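Open question from group meeting: does this chain pack into something compact, or does most of it stay loose? Before anyone orders reagents, we agreed to write out a predicted structure and look at it together. Recording both the input and the output here so the notebook holds the full record.
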Amino acid sequence: MAERRDGPSLETYLETRLNLLDQRLRDDRAALDLMLAERDQRYEERYRASEQALVKVATSMDARFQSVNEFRSTLADQARDLMPRAETEVRMKALETVLERLQGERIGVKGGWGYAVGAVGFVLILVNLWMAAQRLP
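Structure tokens returned:
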């Protein structure tokens, strides 16, 4: 018995199916290429945004470190210009010694004046007594 064929031949059918599959593969490839291009563009935008953020962070860190360096410089100036505690204590002790000596001299001078006034007073009394004795007949 012979088979009846109502459609295209097997060769035409296979060729049509292969052409359709080939077209679908090309369409899928084009869609995939488009999706990859879009993702590449998004990744590039993200990269540029992160790069800009890094530049901003680096700039702000530079400013922060500049202020830290200024603070360190101030501390170094203080360490160089301010007198150390030990040296200050030595100088204060020397000043206290000088002040004690000066106070002692001042007390001595005051005491000396007292003695001088007393001696002058005593001499005047003696002179006065001598003069009084001279007047007596």
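Observations to bring back to the group:
Helices lie at 10-81, 85-135.
Residues 9-82 form one domain.
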